[in-house]
């Protein structure tokens, strides 16, 4: 019966019935927020993603085609939107890492300074859990895609993306603290 109600709601939404959209929003917002939080572990992102996914239903109400049940469609959309947000965050961390790497290699002279950097990288990597280190090394140093890592380690791709996100977050924080301390010295 729930599926039939959802189909009716979607039909009313297609006819610009904002009340039907509000019912759909209230019915699925919490579940979509929970799906997003499961993968992102960030409540602010999860709330925004859930609202955005539902908002897209309203924006595309005239053209949207849902071939399976609406709940599955929305949960999949929330999961995919979460992965997109995580990918963007990973790109930011990678750009930061690249910038830091370039800055240090351009500014530093001599093998002892490079060894100091390598030591700090090892220390930073020690901040990660064993699983995060393993996934991060495969991704960053061996150019494995998350799907390949998931298959290799017998994990879900969502778990791999989540662990990469957590690893990047820890490393970013480690280097942020390290660089703020080194700037205070000079």
UniProtKB/TrEMBL annotation:
One of its GO terms (molecular function) is sigma factor activity. One of its GO terms (biological process) is DNA-templated transcription initiation. The keyword Transcription applies. Keywords: Sigma factor, Transcription, Transcription regulation. Residues 24-89 form the RNA polymerase sigma-70 region domain. It comes from the Bacteria. Residues 119-171 form the RNA polymerase sigma factor 70 region 4 type domain. It holds the Pfam family Sigma70_r2. Belongs to the sigma-70 factor family. ECF subfamily. This is RNA polymerase sigma-70 factor.
